[in-house]
Predict the structure of phytol kinase.
Amino acid sequence: MHPAVQISRLQCLPPSIRRFASPACARNSTLKEVERAMEYIQEHRAELSNSQHNAFLPVFFHHLDPAKIPSPGSLDSMDVRTSETISCALISLAAIAHMHQLPRAVGVSLWPRVWPWTHFIITHRDRLPAPPPQPTFETDFVRLIGQFHDHPDGWELISSTPGFRCFVAQIWKIGPVIQEPYRELMFSDLSGFIADLGVREPKNLDEFVQGAGGDVKDLAALIVQYMRSIPLKSPSSRIVPGGLATEVFRLFTFIVEADQHPGDDVKWLGTPFGPFFEALVRAHGAIETVLELMHTLIGSYAPHTDSAKALKIGLSFITRLLISPWGYASLEPALEAGILKVIVSCATLSCSSMVYLSSRYLLRVGIPLGLVRRSFYELEDATATAEFRHSKIFEDWEIFVKLARGRIEILDDEQFEEPWKACDNLKCGNFDAKQEFKRCSRCKSFYYCSSECQKTDWQSGGHRTACKSYGNLIMHESMPGSSLGTRERDYLRSLLRHDYIANIEKICAEQIKAMSANRSAVLLTVFDYCFFDLQLEVHSATDSALAADLRERSEAEYNNLVARSKASEGTLQLHVIRIMVASVRRDFVIPLRTADSEMYDTMKKLAAQGSYDADGEEFLGLLEVAVDTTIHS
């Protein structure tokens, strides 16, 4: 037993004070004597030293004897003595919570008494004659845990107690109903030990989830609620030692632990989400709130402090989200909340290499350039500084800017151009505005200019046998595993069209080269947008690794596309656009339609010759036809 809780400790008090403490500590002390001791402490708090205040600890330790906890059955017909015993315990819990600078090791002696009484009270609160007011009881408990946390032995004892995390989560839930400044005090006390709750262990996380409401979505909502509760305008006003940065760092650490961080930040970026992290990234407002905190941390940044650590975790969190299966849907709110500004700001700070790696990854892979228009132009002044030009990511940023400008122009042009389609009846090939066509209601992938063309393709074009298989390779609104909306799909077709025209000479040359080996071959022309520079490739549609991959994804659909291309006699080519969707490389087939076979016939002729003049009339004529008579349908 710690000396601070022994009755002999009362001898440290002057006789004038001891006369209030000793009767309250007697074997048969009454509720009035305990109340008198508590009243003396409250009335003379300013006069008592910490040592004198804490010398009352044996009184309250005595009244938290677990042997005095009433049986649940006795609560229905409670006598006066039982009622007074409960009241003395409530007074004692509140008194200990408000003591300052308790001896560090005293928690080992106090906890075996504090927790049984606390558990009894929260379990039977509604049956008590004078239940403790909410949230005072809860905030006092959190304050007390904050004092015990600093001692390793005491914290080990507390954190190994079944039900402890469940109650902490229940306390967390009532945060919104607590009035200031008590809410700030409660969250500040909570942040002192939240990072050390051991939620990396599944059983500990499960217990915390139960207290939050029983589902990981409930815990995710609590996290977002907590982040929103942190005042952002005056970070220096935080009560937590170290201010806002320390509080945010501890909260972010809790998130990392709950997500089973593998111990390597780079590996963490690509590690599959656990149920908690999935719920968190899908919680309403999560990404915007994290970014808001990061903007504030940047404003009060100092190297080698908790602000630097919190920024590192925060940027890793955002990167992990944006390259996830839910990342694409989060991009617009992330850009609205200033993700690019965070990247630029972090680049000029003395942050860890992880910030550099996350920023670089986002610039190269994570942010589709078609979505950056407004955020991009807002950063022109910030990126023109000498400090940023000397940062590690400046070279990546320059490439990003160059591509972004081009993609924004394409996006702007696309908004003023009506999308075109070609009738999917190969015997027709009519070109017209997309709105003039009727779409197959079953596969949602094929368009026809008339019911007659639809019937023809159904009966003799092969659509009858392949219709139900479509939707995995050709982009449309219902394709599985994709978050690409109509706007994104139209943009990608416009991007493909733009780069097809810009690179037509190289594309035709590569296709002729492939056809020279097999003049009847069906080709796959790949436009790879996974990284900064567009990569162009030409593959066989029948015996290449890409063909095998596409066939494995949707065999019937792919075989029908190849058969249609072959039957078109050169009026349908198969183009593949390769992009990153949710950090995964995805290939989508976008057919290239031509009004007639002139382009195909010319390429076959040049391929048969074995060589051709790149400046010759035939090749230049081929390029002109390719530009003027084709659309990506």
In short: Residues 232-241 have pLDDT under 50 and may be disordered.
